[in-house]
Amino acid sequence: MNIHFYKYQGTGNDFVIMDNRDGAYDQLTNEQVHFLCDRRFGVGGDGLMMLNKHPEYDFEMKYYNADGKPGSMCGNGGRCLTAFSRKMGIPGEKVTFIASDGPHEAIFRENGWVELKMQDVDWVEAGPLYFYLNTGSPHFVKPVDDVQSLDVYTEGRGIRYNERFAEVGTNVNFVQQLENGIFVRTYERGVEDETYSCGTGVTAAALTSAGQEAKTYTVPVQTLGGPLEVRFTKSGERSFHDIWLCGPATLVFEGNINI
Length: 259
Ligand SMILES: N[C@H](CCC[C@H](N)C(=O)O)C(=O)O
Known about the structure:
The chain is built from four helices and 17 strands. A hairpin with a 2-residue loop joins strand 8 (124-127) and strand 9 (130-134). The protein has helices spanning 30-37, 75-87, 152-160, 199-208; strands at 2-10, 13-19, 47-52, 59-65, 94-99, 102-108, 113-118, 124-127, 130-134, 138-143, 171-178, 181-188, 193-195, 216-223, 226-236, 239-248, 250-258. By secondary structure, the chain is α+β, with helices and mostly antiparallel strands. 2,6-diaminopimelic acid (API) binds next to helix 2 and helix 4. Catalyzes the stereoinversion of LL-2,6-diaminopimelate (L,L-DAP) to meso-diaminopimelate (meso-DAP), a precursor of L-lysine and an essential component of the bacterial peptidoglycan.
C-alpha cells in the first residue's frame, strides 16, 4: 500500500498524519501503525493520526500511540490535526471535531498557535504528594523541586508499571513550580518513554497547580519542546471548565512510503 503522509509537531510531540476522509487507510493494521511511528525503520512519531470524515463535525480525530494501539485523547495531536485540517482545505477560523473523549472546538490564532478546548474535569484524586486525573487521557501528576535533574524515564516507568497502573497504564507527569508558571516533563504510556511534551499531561499539571480560589487562571507552561499555555476556570475544589490548551502546531514535511 502506498501512503501519503504528513509529519507534524507541537512542542516536539510529533505525529504522522494521514488524510483518510475517503477511507483509503481504514484497513491499516496496528502493526503498520507501529512501523510508521518507528524512528529507525519507519517515518517516526510519538503517535499517528487520521483525519476522518464526520457527518456532524468538521472532522473526526483518530489517534494511535507509537506502539500501534488506539490511544485516548491527545492534546498536542488535536492541535496538530486542527492545523492539518486547514491545510486540507477545511475552512474557518474555528473548527469542531470529535475525538475519543467527545467533541472539541479549536481556534486559529494569528501568531500560528492553535487553541484547543478540552473536556471539563470534575474529578481529581488528591493523594499524599500526587494527583491523579483524566483530561482525555489518564494522568498521574507528581510535584517535584527540580524537574531538570530527574530521571523521568526510570521514575515514570516505575509508576506506570506499578501494581495499580500496570494493566491499563497511565501517563506520568513531573511538575516544577516556576516563578511564573510550571515546567512539565512527561513519561507517556503507549510510547513507553519520555516525550518532549504531552498536551493532556500539561493540562492536568496546570489544573492541579492552581490555587484554592475559584476563578480563571492562565498558566504558562515550559516543556522540553518549548512553551504552551493553559487557560481554565476553577469552579470548585476539584472542578474545572472552559479549559484551553494553547500552543504551536507545525508541519515538518510530507512524503510517500510503501508498506
Ligand atoms: N501526547 C498526548 C497524550 C497521548 C496519550 C497517550 N499516551 C495515551 O495515554 O493513550 C498529548 O499531547 O496529550
